[in-house]
Amino acid sequence: MSEDAEKGAVPTPAFAPWDDPQAKPLIRFQGVTKKFGEFVAIDDLSLDIYEREFFALLGPSGCGKTTLMRMLAGFENPSMGGITLAGRDIVPVPPNKRPVNMMFQSYALFPHLSVADNIAFGLKRSDMAKSEIAGRVDEMLGLVQLRKFAARKPHQISGGQRQRVALARALAKAPKLLLLDEPLGALDRKLREETQFELMDIQEKLGTTFVIVTHDQEEAMTVASRVAVMDNGRLVQVDTPERIYEFPVSRYVADFIGDVNLIEGRIETLTKDCATVVWAETMPPITAGLPQGIGAGEACVFAIRPEKVTISAERPPDAVNALPGKVLDIGYLGNMSTYHVELANGQVIKSQMTNQRRLARRAFSWEDQVWVSFTATGGLILMA
Amino acid sequence: MKPMKKSVLAALSALALATPALAEEVHVYNWSDYIDEELLVQFEQETGIKLIYDVYDSNEVLETKLLAGSTGFDVVVPSASFLARQIKAGVYQKLDKSKLPNLVNVWPEIAERVSVFDPGNAYSINYMWGTTGIGYNVKKVAEVLGDDAPVNSLALVFDPKNMEKLAECGVHFLDAPDEVIPAALRYLGEDPNSGDVDVIAKAQPVLEAVRPYVRKFHSSEYINALANGEICVAFGWSGDILQARDRAAEADAGIEIDYKIPKEGALMWFDQMAIPADAPNPDGALKFLNFILEPKVAAAASNYVYYANGNKASQQYLNEDVIGDPAIYPDEATIKNLYVKEAYDQKTQRFATRMWTAIKTGN
Amino acid sequence: MFNFRRFFLISVPYIWLLLLFLVPFGIVLKISLSDSALAIPPYSPTFDLSAGWAGFREMWAAFDFENFLWLVDDSLYIKAYLSSVWIALVSMILTLLVGYPIAYGMAKAPEEWRPTLMMLIILPFWTSFLIRVYAWIGILGSQGYLNQFLLWIGVIDEPLVLLNTSLAVYIGIVYTYLPFMVLPIYATLEKLDGDLLEAAEDLGCSRISAFWLITVPLSRPGVIAGCFLVFIPVVGEFVIPSLLGGSRTLMIGKVLWDEFFANRDWPLASAVAVILLLILIIPIVLFQRQQQRAQEAGQ
Q1: CATH level 3 topology of A14-252
Q2: Do chains B and A touch (3 or more CB pairs under 8 A)?
Q3: Is residue C182 in a domain?
Q4: Of A95, A106, A110, which has the smallest distance from its Cβ to C202's Cβ?
Q5: Each residue of A158-186: pLDDT tens digit?
Q6: SS in 3 state form for chain A?
């Protein structure tokens, strides 16, 4: 597949400073390494984050994403390398002198202060005039719709309200950069989804640069303009959510983001615009787009998302890739169903189909013999 | 009150061994470190009575128990001034003297003095007696006041000129108004035994004048404090000071303590054995009292605790360092010069205690 | 429906309170209304059960407030109460000043050290309180270890008089009551979320101002609990001032002892105790309220 075809597959967003060679990054990590004793938390990492971005650091626990954020806040300093904010070296600047604010995972609301005093806390430490502080607090209370609760103590309001107080407090000083550490982790699912959109609204309204740390890939995909997937203190992929999802650079990313079928094999042939992968003696080879950096005969893994896999009773006549199997399991999710199809060699392929018809009239049932099929551009060949 | 190390274990184990065969019991409540424990074993062997021996260390504690009633003790050993008012409160029973043949050994002079507290010696026998006087560190007092320091006079502790100098090496007074106030009155030439509050009040300016130089009012700490050189003068009880003298000698750290009965006279005190009215075994108690009145037993007790006893017949059995020590057995003339003080009545006691608190705290 | 089990559970603390507080207090109150007498027990009237209701009425008629009037009459008692409260307040503040840094250090220590540090705070409790106070006599005496040490390093030429001074009393009280201050403060500091301090720093506080603005207010329940736990018993403290203090230290515990033992005046001693209790009830009630509020806030 060509470079143009890739671009065509995902529409380029209007806001994309990372694609503009003229744009100056707000934050620049240059060769940053952080060690805790012998343990390397961040390993020679370089990263640019641009103004007005909603940037997500995504990865499993212990991948270094929190350390990276704490270095931005000033609670940790790099063992090697430099960090600049708006062109200024911030490594020697203590946390209380940085134009950066953080929203803590625990919210860290001061329990002895009222909601309004929590929000005013940072303002009172700044050189803002007393008379202006009240107005600013009121503005922030309005932003998060908590005017009615200004006098309450944190233990007198709900979890969602506390989350908003924490956000308002972190935003009150109008920081150049707002850090959000797992900001929605403590909320239940429905509230979390609502809040995600609120966060995006607020970010858009204020134009503040947000850096969010999360282990929840759905959350990262929803809110972020770009996502950095981290593993073992390194950046694995930094890209827009769409491209991370559709074009993961590695098996790790493909596996970490969303659901994926992984088929291990070996590249058989490479032509001008496609490649074939052999993966089981009894099965036909898979035809897919050209891989990057893998030569013929080398081991590889073929990754395809379940929603790119179609199930049919007969072999679709024009399918590039079609494999026979039987339905092993069906997971009903309401709007869609996930089918687990066991191929003849024992490999299980997941397929996701929207439930356009009612349940009673569904086409496939357990033990049905079916065909799974997908196009040549549906999956990706990645390094093993 | 000599330290009693060696014999305690032996005595206690002997008591334990003797226990099962004995049915009759006598409960004795005495001052701590106040008897040769071997005498207790001897009593059990002679009479076949099981002796249960318990100790206390202040008259006040004993009195509080007695006034609360039902102590279960058969013999107690209060000081005479406490005994007097306890007799009035109905705490004791009269002694059946027909069961105390050893009363013939009593020292009449002492019995007569005690009769102020216990008329006709109807309720008690004397166990030990002593004086309240001056204990001092020979070397330090000479350093501070010179070789002609008035160590044998109450002026040493009641004259502010002396006390001002002594303050730097440390002075302790007994925390006992009943002992110190009479001494101050004696120093003034007043009747130390007066129960008149106007007379008693005269002691206040004397004591207030020396108060700033007294490091502490306490009734037992001076034993150690004298012995280890913490203080150089204590106005205290003869036996305690002699105990400090022996401890200092044992420690061999160059500290020499001596005890003097002031030439103005000293208060004479008596520890009396008596039987509570509700004693469970008064007969056993009388046997114990009679045992104590045996000359050899009384002598052994004095030889052990270094106090004089009220038993004339015991004197031939006393060790030379007891009978020959004028601090323990003063000569006739000195004894004549000793005085006794009766217990204050309730109102006077309150006045004296109040005055004492005022002197001590400046309130 | 009458729930017996529930009734039983609720009644246990009340029975406890009745038996161990109200009944003894009632007895003390009764004695405080009596007159002292040379008798067994040394006061009158006494309640004669065999006389029945008439006996009770007779006893009631003999009660008066003479002893309480006496307490007001003689300034000694008021001075002693005030002096006790003052000594308790000063001791409380000193204990707080010493205890807070210890508790803070413990709470900041690595987690694996904390049980050991806690143990070190509690350990002295395993030996007799009296022995520990006596040990201070050995340390503070003019021939004591402290003076010997100071003489040895040449800071002083003459031994300092430390024992039998107010300083010694304060040292003894602070030493003895320190765990009562350290443990509640430690409990609140240990629970203190480290994020709060980082949040304060993040919002523009220096470390020091974060301590004053966050740590101190949030450790207030522990500080208050500690202060009460020190203040209340120290007001009635008797042993430490009598062993380490000079005779000038006027405390109500000592006055009470004098009335009870030296004067044998049980009724007056009881009156002193009743007033002492009334004085202490105010801080105790305040303490209870504070505890309750802290508990509500914690939920």
Answers
A1: Rossmann fold (3.40.50)
A2: no
A3: yes
A4: A95
A5: 999 999 999 999 999 999 999 999 998 87
A6: CCHHHHHHHCCCCCCCHHHCCCCCCCEEEEEEEEEECCEEEEEEEEEEECCCCEEEEECCCCCCHHHHHHHHHCCCCCCEEEEEECCEECCCCCHHHCCEEEECCCCCCCCCCCHHHHHHHHHHHCCCCHHHHHHHHHHHHHHCCCHHHCCCCHHHCCHHHHHHHHHHHHHHCCCCEEEEECCCCCCCHHHHHHHHHHHHHHHHHHCCEEEEEECCHHHHHHHCCEEEEEECCEEEEEECHHHHHHCCCCHHHHHHCCCCEEEEEEEEEECCCCEEEECCCCCCCEEECCCCCCCCCCEEEEEECHHHCEEECCCCCCCCEEEEEEEEEEEECCCEEEEEEEECCCCEEEEEEECCCCHHHCCCCCCCEEEEEECCCCEEEEEC
